[in-house]
Amino acid sequence: MPCTHRPTPTAVVGGLPGTTPPVKTSAVTTSLVTTLLAAVLVVVSVVAAPVLRANGGTVRVSQHPSGPFLITVYTEPTPLRTGDIDVSVLLQDRETRATVRGAAVTVRARAVGHAGTGGTFSATREQATNKLFQSAKFAIRGPGLWRFTVTARSADGEGRVSFEAEATDPTLLDRPVLLTVLVLVPVLLVGWLLTRPDERREE
User: Does the structural domain 54-171 have CATH classification 2.60.40.10?
Assistant: First the structure.
């Protein structure tokens, strides 16, 4: 009997039998770079979040009774670093627990066991982001143990509280802008290399 098998037709793409469509690598690489950039931004934002907070951070003293006041103290950054810091103080009336306004508040920073440089600084509402607080922004120089003394004075009397905290030198994670640049530049460079047009001419 004559053979009735017929060969299966070969798909023709671009006029050439047996070829496959070209892969759109530019779209794939662009999507990959976009995904990498989004991931980097998410990671940097998570890392930088604690650095960017204000009038919050680590509670050093919570409603400590002294004189006519209940004194609460926060410090930033978290963890505490040498350089610029923020000491925020919340004063409450000892009897009514209402926020006390009009008191003069100072913060003294003194190095313990090392030759760090501190001083005595005024805490004001003008320096605070949250106006319930009185904030002192200043710099401490020298890693190690620090002793902070907060003193509040008003017509009703005086209150004082002290606490100690360890300060370390800043790390790269404490510089979110620099960290972002260092991470984004290599990613952008790789993305440019992957997506740039191929200037080689086919022979």
Answer: yes
